[in-house]
Specification:
The protein has 1509 residues and is mainly β. It contains 12 helices and 104 strands. The strands form 26 sheets. Strands 49, 50, 51, 53, 54 and 55 form a 6-stranded antiparallel sheet that branches. A 5-stranded mixed sheet has the order 6-13-12-8-9, with no helix packed on it. The longest helix has 28 residues.
């Protein structure tokens, strides 16, 4: 006992010292010494008790006693805590080996002197574990004698030898006895720290082999080496720690520490909470954090997010990209911020559906093939060393169009849970749109990874959004999808789930732990004490985890006694009220400790139990679950509470509702409809769990009603009651902060302040401002105090009762009907002392109206301080917002005396800033506070003021606004001063339209009229009324007051058939009440025998008819129209020569009508020339009968039928023609009977032509019993010349383009015509000069070819040639450019042909003298002479049978005078017979004169004849 007390005191003393050394730490962790034998006794006693097995006697229900062995108990959990006699923990040890108590005592008590060390484990670990002995270990050793040191060395050597022998013995007996699974001696403890502090987690782990330690944050492995600036991990003496530096709010998480060796794995969890100190509401993980100083880089990083993505809308199957531009200042080389994307506060991981990109400036996330799972709030978070910034916007994903009308849309968010060896639970979320009828159920499909075959898992649809899929093959991976079904059909399949492996959960956990033990590569699990042939025990904790109408799911825990070959399970059921247990899975036991039972009778009660089995047999059944009634345990959600819809923006509405009372709520769907329709449309396609939702994508100005329905796995709730109707338009909020608080005047005891109105009015007019002040003395500032208790209506204020030479700061708040804004930034410290400045102060109250793409109107108020003289003008400066100070430019040159100005020439989409300077006689003062930036962009839907003149002539200006809000008003101004005098204008406002009516328009009303709509984003417009514009409006007003009926055409007159006269006019428009008065010479005339009237009001045509014009009808005809108060008059004056001419035309028309009652000429006799140059006299007749006589005559001589000219007359229907140039063949009577002229006897007809013989007066007469008509054509003098001119025109136009032909004599230019007449004048020009006829250049006609011949052409003949053909007027010209290539080709061809002609003339040839055949009697002499020509004189030779002859005694060859070649044979013989030729040759050619010589013998000839006879 005393030994225990002494050890306890020593340990306590050491513990106190360690606490003093580690006061800076907030945890306690110390290493204690073990006692000599108490620890060993506890360790070995535990080991011994773990190897016993008890026998028990159990009584069965029938009273028999049965002896059973108790199942092998679990090995008692080893304890490594060192305890004293009072069972108080005084330390811990790590067991190094197991041996008997005596052996341990002999090892620990071998000491002579009192030596202090860290612990017995020091000696044991140094000798047993060589690797761990190398680790750094602080050992505190006292001084000892040499004798003691030598003795201890010897004892140590003996101890090592003994330990090694003992270890080898134990390995042979039981190799696994030393190893055991990891165990936490000290677990990590959760902590709460302030932001910016450092926190450390500690734990102590025992186990052999030495466990591998890994730290996780929210189940994500922490890589300390990759982030040394954030994490530090240490491991010494089985003490492990994780240090988290500079804690941030995002470090709030669950931290897991995992210890793993070959015997198993254990883990422990500790929660770290990082708090942030601030006055207001605690920030969330994605809320912006104030940037702090970064000591690592020596700067404070400031992050700005621009070009932000807005609320986005996509459709399933599309690709959507979101992006922002991120600016981090200052820029540090090789440093990039961390960019993280979130969806609904969950970090997005790159996948095939999500692609993220960071370019260094722009962060984007691309959603490939959108699905409803992608809907949600997307957040961009930019982390820097100084903090982080975020930006969020919602993404809505609409359903793709359904293939069949009325079917539901696809379900979403398919997930897999509780995956086992042959079983997995698939869950999903119901879609927002059920289709035209309610969803009847769902089909679940599965597909093995690596294949494309989808198999349906359920035969009948399931109503629950949760289904257990069985029959999986262990070790294989599967993906799942779900389809919804209603009366109309089946929906498209959902997006497939993540792949899941069918395997035991414990195996999956071990595989997941694989990366934490890289030193093994593959983890192998072994059982401690293999026992073969052990029947497994009973499963425990059998419960029903799910119960629906379709299935029941059981779950249980594996038995404690199960052997080492694995167990499988049989499930049994028993119907309530019976004792019969039926095995459910008779065919194949299941491997997973979960099972789904189908085909149970709804409403019946069942009990269930489970049995284990292995190769040794089937174990005992588990305890029954008790009676379970088949039915839906999960009820449908109740209807959500009444939704309340409130305005948010121009396209969104906030909907809030009461929560639904339901278990396992999946979320809510919000629907809306426009008032007056019954079509409900979804606002969200992914259920939301909160009871507040912002519905985007609505149409501005529509009146909408909302409702909500809840959903869980059981289905949809009833829809909530409809909300009250709400108009979609922006909500009213408090205004923004005023800006630019500045001093404009200072006196001894007061200062005049000015500021700029807030950029955002919150949707309501600013009602006033409140000013606060505080004193400033050096770096010490006082508290804020209010200066005015009543709101100010201007943007300036006179702060009175101040102290001279004291510094003050001021801030301003704006107020509207929604409340008071936040305070502006404090002004600079301003000293209250009197100014001595001579120039004017800065203008105040700058604001803009009428913002357009290229213009804006800037307005301001005069400065509070005028200087020594009054202000006499202003200067407006403008610059682009992105430009520097050097970018300021004056908007005008001369001083502007008005307090407003329209700036034009802006660039659309560019932001600008403005400032104004005031001027007095002393000069130009300081500029005002900068106004802007103002974006030059026309607000969508903006309308301009337009001027209208109504039917009563009232002039008014109208302005319309489609974005009216509650409390919005139209405010009219003249020259940008609000109109208060109603004597000039009357203003009438109806809904979104305001009309400003001029009471009495005059020059007093000239100016700029503007209208502003309050409670909007500055919707305004203006109209400038000039003197010219006013005059034009007054003219229009007069026309409207005294309207005139407009005429499309003034009164006109037409002559009709029979000489009738028609007076008519047409009005543009008239009513059915329009009346017409017909007046002649101021006397109203009415319809009667002389006049006929007609007024067609459908087309506005007014007509009056008269049969004829008489002398008394000379005068003025008038139509007077009256249509309500509108009047119109139109007149036509017929007097003097005009009337008499019209009267003649009327009489002529009547005579013409009479003429046309009998046969008559529709077209009188005239001529035409056909393209074939036939001259025809033609006319067209009408109203003829078969008995009508048609007579032609020439020069008053009738053309009889037997005359030649009668053959020239032709008639086709009503067309008569006389072909003047037609050739007529005289048919003579044959001399013999029956003989007819042959074709050769008929000469061919010449080309058509006309001559002066055809001149004369031609006349045609039509005659029958109805009347007579005639037509004459004078083909003499002028008539003949007109015909010839027309003929010349046709000929000229028929001429072809000029072509060029080369001959041996020169070049010929020619053109072809259809016909040529001798009287046709043709002229040729070269270079626009007429060509004179000469021997070398000639022109002429051959047939229908017009030609120009140029003999022996030279370079002078090059040029442009023109052929001018007279066509009766100016002439037709054909041009040919004989230069360049055309000249070269023509001249080259001429030379070639000329050379060929010369060669042909001078070539050698035989011109005569030689016969073809010569028959000569043998013995006679033959002499032949041939005439030869050639220049130069040709060479002559003779050949016989193609062999050249030589002059000798037998053949005498002569060539005399260069012309005569002769051959002489003195006495011919039969051998001289053959084919002879005279060959002549010179440089131009060669020719042969061939002849045949036949020599005969008379006697031989006679003998031949006798033989024939």
């Amino acid at each position: 006992m005393s030994g225990s007390v002494q050890v306890t005191q020593k340990l306590q003393h050491q513990h106190q010292q360690q606490q003093q050394q580690q006061q800076q730490h907030h945890y306690e962790s110390s290493c204690h010494l073990s006692t000599k034998s108490s620890v060993s006794q506890q360790s070995f006693s535990t080991y011994k008790t773990s190897s016993r097995r008890l026998q028990t006697t159990v009584k069965t229900e029938k009273g028999k006693e049965v002896v059973k062995l108790s199942p092998l108990p679990k090995r008692a959990k080893r304890t490594y805590l060192a305890m004293d006699t009072d069972k108080e923990v005084i330390g811990y040890v790590i067991p190094v080996f197991r041996a008997s108590h005596d052996v341990v005592r002999s090892l620990t008590e071998a000491k002579e002197e009192d030596v202090t060390e860290e612990g017995i484990n020091y000696v044991a670990m140094r000798n047993l574990f060589v690797r761990e002995a190398r680790e750094a270990m602080e050992v505190k050793v006292e001084k000892r004698t040499r004798t003691t040191h030598i003795r201890e060395s010897a004892e140590r050597m003996e101890l090592c030898k003994t330990m090694e022998e003992w270890a080898e013995f134990r390995k042979k007996m039981n190799p696994d006895s030393l190893t055991h699974r990891p165990e936490f001696i000290v677990k990590p403890r959760g902590q709460t720290v302030w932001e910016g502090k450092t926190v450390k987690l500690h734990c102590t782990v025992a186990g052999w082999p030495k466990p591998r330690i890994a730290w996780y944050k929210n189940n994500v492995l922490i890589d300390a080496k990759a982030h040394p600036e954030k994490y530090a991990v240490e491991s010494n003496y089985n003490m492990h720690s994780l240090e988290i530096k500079n804690c941030d709010f995002i470090d709030t998480a669950q931290y897991h520490v995992s210890a793993l060796n070959v015997k198993g794995e254990v883990s422990s969890v500790a929660t770290i909470v990082v708090k942030r100190f601030q006055e207001g509401k605690e920030a969330g993980p994605l809320d912006p954090k104030p940037h702090g100083f970064c000591a690592e880089h020596g700067v404070t990083f400031e992050t700005t997010i621009i070009d932000k993505f807005e609320v986005a809308f996509g459709r399933e199957g599309e690709t959507l990209s979101l992006g922002c531009t991120v600016i981090v200042y200052p820029t540090v080389k090789k440093y990039q911020p961390e960019v993280v994307w979130y969806r609904n506060s969950v970090p997005l991981k790159p996948s095939k559906w999500v692609h993220t990109h960071w370019s260094g400036e722009r962060a984007t996330v691309t959603l490939v093939h959108l699905n409803k799972e992608d809907e949600g709030m997307y957040t961009l978070r930019v982390n820097t060393k100084s903090g982080f910034d975020t930006y969020s916007a919602y993404v809505f994903v609409r359903d793709a169009d359904v293939e069949v009308e009325g079917v539901p849309v696809a379900p979403l968010d398919v997930r897999c849970h509780d995956a086992n060896k042959d079983y997995v639970v698939v869950t999903w979320k119901q879609p927002a749109v059920e289709g035209s009828s309610s969803i009847l159920g769902y089909y679940i499909d599965r597909c093995e990874v690596g294949t494309h075959h989808w198999a349906q898992c359920n035969d009948s649809p399931v109503k629950y959004a949760r289904f257990p899929v069985t029959g999986l093959v262990e070790g294989r991976s599967y993906i799942f999808r779900v389809r919804a079904l209603n009366k109309e059909g089946v929906s498209r399949p959902s997006r497939v789930s993540e792949a899941v492996v069918a395997m035991d959960p414990s195996d999956r956990a071990r595989l997941r732990a694989g990366p934490s033990a890289p030193f093994t590569g593959m983890i192998k699990f072994t059982e401690e004490d293999p026992t073969v042939g052990v029947v497994p025990g009973e499963p425990c904790d059998v419960v029903v985890t799910e119960a629906t109408k379709s299935y029941v799911v059981l779950a249980w825990k594996p038995p404690v006694q199960r052997g080492h070959e694995g167990v499988m399970y049989y499930i049994e059921k028993c119907i309530s009220g019976t004792d019969i247990w039926q095995r459910v899975n008779t065919g194949m036991p299941v491997k997973s400790p979960r099972f789904a039972l189908f085909d149970l009778a709804e409403g019946k009660s069942y009990s269930f139990r489970v049995r284990c089995c292995n190769s040794a047999g089937v174990g005992e059944a588990s305890v029954s679950t008790g009676e379970i009634t088949v039915g839906d345990k999960l009820e449908l959600p109740s209807a959500p509470g009444n939704p309340v819809a409130t305005r948010n923006t121009d396209t969104s509405v906030v909907v809030i509702w009461g929560a639904s009372q339901v278990k396992h709520l999946v979320g809510y769907y919000i629907e809306y409809t426009m008032v007056g329709t019954d079509k409900w449309m979804p606002c969200n396609n992914k259920p939301v769990k909160q009871t507040r939702f912002v519905c985007h994508g609505l149409t501005t100005g529509t009146n909408c009603v909302f409702r909500v329905k809840a959903v869980n796995a059981a289905g949809y709730s009833q829809s909530s009651p409809d909300s009250d109707a709400v108009v979609v338009q922006a909500a009213i909020s408090v205004p923004g902060k005023p800006t630019g608080v500045s001093l404009v005047e200072a006196v001894k005891d007061y200062m005049v302040l000015a500021w700029t109105a807030p950029a955002s009015t919150g949707g309501a007019d600013i009602r006033g401002y409140f000013v606060d002040y505080r004193t400033v003395k050096g770096d010490v500032v006082g508290k804020w105090h209010e200066m005015n208790h009543k709101a100010l209506t201007t943007t300036s204020y006179k702060a009175e009762n101040l102290k001279e030479n004291v510094f003050y700061q001021f801030q301003v708040r704006a107020m509207n009907m929604a409340g008071v804004s936040k305070a502006s930034l404090p002004s600079a410290a301003l000293e209250c002392k009197e100014w001595t400045i001579t120039v004017a102060g800065a203008p105040v109250g700058l604001h803009v109206l009428e913002v357009r793409d290229t213009s804006v109107v800037v307005l301001w108020e005069p400065p509070a301080f005028n200087g020594r003289t009054p202000v006499n003008g202003y200067y407006l400066d403008v610059k682009k917002a992105s430009a520097g100070e050097e970018g300021w430019k004056a908007a005008h040159e001369k001083a502007n005396k008005m307090k407003y100005m329209k700036v034009t020439g802006l660039k659309a989409g560019t932001s600008y800033v403005f400032r104004v300077r005031a001027q007095n006689l002393a000069g130009v003062g300081k500029p005002s506070a900068v106004l802007g930036p103002i974006l030059a962009q026309t607000h969508p839907g903006t309308k301009e003021i337009y001027v209208d003149v109504d039917d009563d002539g009232v002039i008014s200006m109208i302005f319309e606004c489609s974005e009216m809000k509650e409390g919005s008003e139209f405010v009219w101004s003249k020259n940008y001063q609000t109109i208060t005098d109603t004597s000039r204008l009357t203003i009438i406002t109806e809904q979104g339209k305001s009309r400003a009516i001029f009471n009495s328009p005059s020059l007093e009303d000239l100016g700029i009229f503007s209208c502003v709509v309050t409670n909007t984003d500055g919707i305004s417009s203006s109209y400038t009324l000039t003197e010219e514009g006013l005059k034009r409006l007054l003219d229009i007003s007069h026309d409207h007051k005294f309207p005139v009926i407009p005429f499309k055409s003034e009164m006109a007159m037409d002559l009709l058939e029979k000489g009738r006269v028609r007076f008519w006019t047409q009005v543009e428009k008239c009513t059915s009440a329009c009346q017409v008065e017909y007046i002649f010479n101021d006397v109203i005339i009415t319809e009667g025998q002389k006049y006929t009237m007609n007024f067609d009001k459908s087309n506005g045509i007014i007509e009056m008819f008269m049969d004829s014009l008489e002398v008394t009808d000379e005068g003025t005809f008038t139509f007077n129209l009256v249509d309500g108060k509108a009047k119109g008059t139109t007149s036509l004056v017929l007097i003097g020569d005009e009337f008499r001419e019209l009267q003649k035309k009327s009489e002529f028309e009547r005579a013409e009508w009479v003429r046309k009652q009998g046969p008559h000429f529709v077209e009188y006799l005239d001529f035409t020339v056909t393209p074939e140059c036939n001259v025809l006299l033609k006319c067209k007749i009408g109203n003829v009968r078969p008995e009508t006589e048609i007579t032609w005559s020439k020069d008053s001589i009738e053309i009889a039928e037997d005359d030649e000219d009668a053959l020239k007359i032709e008639r086709k229907d009503v067309d008569l023609t006389f072909n003047i140039g037609k050739w007529v063949i005289k048919q003579e009577k044959p001399k013999g009977k029956g003989k007819k002229p042959t074709a050769e006897d008929v000469p061919p007809p010449p080309r058509p032509k006309i001559s002066k013989a055809d001149a004369g007066i031609y006349k045609v007469i039509l005659r029958d019993d109805r009347g007579k008509d005639n037509s004459t054509f004078n083909l003499t003098d002028a008539g003949y010349q007109a015909v010839m001119n027309e003929l010349f025109r046709v000929i000229a136009n028929s001429s072809s383009e000029i072509t060029v032909v080369s001959t041996e004599h020169g070049i010929i230019l020619s053109s072809m015509v259809t016909y040529y007449n001798e009287e046709l004048r043709v002229g040729w020009l070269q270079k626009d000069a007429k060509i004179a006829a000469s021997e070398r250049v000639k022109s002429g006609v051959t047939g229908e070819q017009l030609w120009l011949k140029i003999n022996e052409p030279t370079e002078k003949d090059k040029g442009k040639y023109t052929m001018d053909i007279f066509d009766g007027k100016d002439g037709v010209k054909r041009v040919f450019d004989l230069t360049g290539k055309a000249w070269e080709e023509a001249f080259e061809e001429f030379q070639r042909l000329k050379a060929a002609a010369i060669a042909e003339r001078n070539r050698a040839r035989v011109v005569g003298g030689l016969p073809d055949v010569v028959a000569i009697q043998e013995g006679k002499s033959l002499n032949l002479t041939g005439n030869v020509w050639g220049e130069p004189v040709p060479e002559v030779s003779w050949t016989k049978n193609d062999r050249e002859l030589v002059s000798d005694e037998r053949y005498k060859l002569k060539f005399e005078h260069g012309k005569f070649a002769s051959i002489t044979i003195a006495a011919v013989t039969t051998l001289d017979s053959g084919k002879y030729a005279l060959l002549v040759k010179n440089k131009y050619g060669t020719e042969a004169g061939e002849f045949t010589v036949s020599v005969y013998n008379p006697e031989e000839e006679e003998n031949k004849e006798e033989k024939k006879g």
